Amino acid sequence: MKKIFAAILLMAVVSTSQAATDHKTCAGISELAEQIMKNRLDGVRITDAMGLANNAGEMKSLVTEIVSNAYKSYGYKTEEYKDSAIKDFGATYYLDCMKHSK
């Protein structure tokens, strides 16, 4: 849970910096999505994850969306499938972010 909070703080800094590139912003969102999915697959309760989303300030709607989508996904059991699901989830958010930043 501490990693999610750190990622949210990182996102707040990146999103408010005028010098941040689209890649940096989208990479930060991707990392946040991966961490949320990792926590979901490691058994963190949705209520705990949503509690952090509620404290994400201006990032609340994005974090809430990511948490909702992570918990709608299938809960993989093997490490190989978990790693793949985490990377794919982050990649989806990265690509969506890059598409919308143009």
Notes on the protein architecture:
It is built from five helices and no strands. It is mostly helical.
Task: Put the structure in a nutshell.
Helices cover 77% and strands 0% of the residues.
Low-confidence stretches: 16-20
Beta-strand content: under 5%
Helix content percent band: over 70%
> How many runs of DSSP E, i.e. beta strands?
0
Give the overall shape.
flat
Mean pLDDT: 84
What characterizes the major β-sheet? none
The total count of helices amounts to 5
Derived from helix and strand composition plus strand pairing, the structural class reads mainly alpha
Structural descriptors:
102 residues; mainly alpha; 77% helix
Helices and strands in order:
Blueprint: H1 2-16, H2 22-41, H3 46-54, H4 60-72, H5 79-100
